[in-house]
Amino acid sequence: MKNGLLFLLVVASLGVGLANAAEPQKDVFKGKLFPPNVILEHQAELELSKSQFTDIRAAVVEVQAGVAEHEWDMREAYQALMQELDKKPIDEDRVLLHASTALLAENQVKKKQMAMLVRLKNLLTAEQIRYLETVYPQ
Questions:
Q1: Which string of b and e fits 60-99 if b means at least 16 CB within 10 Å?
Q2: Using an 8 Å Cβ cutoff, are 78 and 102 in contact?
Q3: Angle at 132 between CA 60 and CA 110, to 5 degrees
Q4: Would you tell me how many other CB atoms lie within 10 Å of the CB of residue 125?
């Protein structure tokens, strides 16, 4: 029972990325935060200043660099986890250790992405935000 529950937990956590690719999930922040590609697609209509454009670019580059390290850690931990799951018997403690490492790295990626999205919104004027809310509604 314990191993079955663990397996479901691992499959569920691993499947999040696959589910996102297979089925579009609701973006809970849509209309509240705006991804850089949406902002840049509407750059002309938003009349982004040179300063805004430069700051947006810097925020995106910064998060990409910071995320890369955590993505490597996450990949490495998931690979180690999968190797543990191939063993018989499965060492539950080692599986949980690798799962924790992977989930911590994944959390760091999401945290950095959230910080970037907040930073991007803070770079926009109230008028620009109102415009984006109309083209990228909830």
A1: beebeebbeebeebbeebbebbeebbeeeeeeeeebeebb
A2: yes
A3: 40
A4: 13
Task: Please return the burial class of 35, using the count of CB atoms within 10 Å of its CB with bins 0-12, 13-18 and 19+.
Answer: middle
Q: What share of the chain is helix, strand, coil (3-state, %, to 5)?
A: 80, 0, 20
Task: Kindly report the pTM of this predicted structure.
Answer: 0.71
Q: Confirm whether 14 is domain-assigned.
A: no
* Token representation of residue 78: 């998931």
End-to-end CA distance of the chain: 41
Report the SS3 class of residue 49. coil
Q: Judge whether 19 lies within some domain.
A: no
Across the 138 residues of the chain, what is the mean pLDDT of every consecutive 10-residue run?
41 45 66 92 96 95 88 91 95 94 91 94 96 89
Q: What is the CATH number of the domain that holds 74?
A: 1.20.120
Q: What is the domain extent for residue 77? A: 30-135
Cα–Cα dist 88/86, whole Å: 7
Q: Confirm whether 8 is domain-assigned.
A: no
